[in-house]
Amino acid sequence: MKFVTARLHDDEFIGMIQGEKAIHINKIAKERFQTDIPTNMISFIEHFHYFEHIIKEIIEEKGHDAFSYSIEETEILAPIPRPSKNVFCVGKNYRDHAIEMGSEQDIPTNLMMFSKAPTAVVGPDAPILRHEDVTDELDYEGELAVIIGKKGKSISKDDAFHHVFGYTILNDITARDLQSKHKQFLIGKSLDTSCPMGPFIVHKSEIENAANLHIETRVNGEIRQDGNTEQFIFPIEEIIATLSKGTTLEPGDIIATGTPAGVGKGFNPPKFLSSGDIIEITVEGIGTLRNKVQ
């Protein structure tokens, strides 16, 4: 099950991807099952257990043409266009990335967390602003993002995946000079359009092992990052358990799990982003997130 937030003309809806089509879940549920399904992805995730059986019936049924649209004719938005809170982000969760940003002494022994403002989120194919008046060091970070599906606090590692709804792709665009100047991450990580996300949320039932997914980032066709989530220093269950100690996680919360080595700053000389650059992040089992720097 791959879900999108899509727009066709003035109609914003939850779509389920089948092949090259997006099935308008809201319309088909209303007309065939007399059920109102939320058009807001956060609400859709929160109440998913109430209508999961309908989604499965839609998958098994045929004859969806009247409720299906070509992906090309719809505008695919970020799966969660406006998160209800900041995006949670894990810093330096790959050993080689920690080293390229400093040295072996920068490999964390405890989970590092920062966040990105909700206003930074944009969808696939949306332009990334270059922000030339603000930064000279715009950088990319391809990441697997976890979408929380069930509210919880003080979640154990053993129970962590029961609180996961699914997974998507996130590009943690970063202004490195602002990150260094302000001695913290929020400003350098929260510029408008600095959180491309999508194109889909893949339900957790479709991902056999989130701890073994290939992740690759290309800039203008050149492979820059080539990693695997098995290289995590802190696995997903530990991230959720640590983050939820004293902090309530809610449906629709987004956790970016960190980026492999190969960011622009890690090269000598650095390879920062320029206007016209095309960034493509592919995560096994999910798809490819593509955005162009404006």
Write the layout of secondary structure elements.
Blueprint (H helix, E strand, L loop, with lengths): L1 E7 L2 E8 L2 E4 H9 L7 H6 L1 H13 L7 E3 L4 E2 L10 E5 L3 H6 L11 E5 L4 E2 L15 E2 L2 E7 L15 E8 L2 E2 H6 L4 H4 L5 E9 L10 E6 L2 E7 L7 H8 L10 E3 L21 E6 L3 E6 L2
What is the terminal separation in angstroms? 32 Å
Number of strands: 18
Helix count, DSSP H or I runs of 4 or more residues: 7
Shape label = globular
The major pleated sheet works out as: 12 strands, mixed
Helical fraction equals 10-25%
- Low-pLDDT stretches: none
Nearest-angstrom radius of gyration? 19 Å
Q: Please state the average pLDDT score.
A: 96
Strand content: 25-35%
Helix and strand composition category: alpha+beta
SSE string, helices as H and strands as E: EEEHHHEEEHEEEEEEHHEEEHEEE
Question: Can you offer a commentary on this structure?
Answer:
The protein has seven helices and 18 strands. The chain has 294 residues and is an alpha+beta fold. The chain has helices at residues 25-33, 41-46, 48-60, 95-100, 176-181, 186-189, 236-243; strands at 2-8, 11-18, 21-24, 68-70, 75-76, 87-91, 112-116, 121-122, 138-139, 142-148, 164-171, 174-175, 195-203, 214-219, 222-228, 254-256, 278-283, 287-292. The mean pLDDT is 96. The strands form three sheets. Strands 1, 2, 3, 4, 5, 6, 7, 8, 10, 11, 13 and 16 form a twelve-stranded mixed beta sheet that branches. It has a four-stranded antiparallel beta sheet with strand order 15-14-17-18, with no helix packed on it. One of its GO terms (molecular function) is acetylpyruvate hydrolase activity. This is Fumarylacetoacetase-like C-terminal domain-containing protein. Keywords: Metal-binding. InterPro entries: Fumarylacetoacetase-like_C, Fumarylacetoacetase_C_sf.
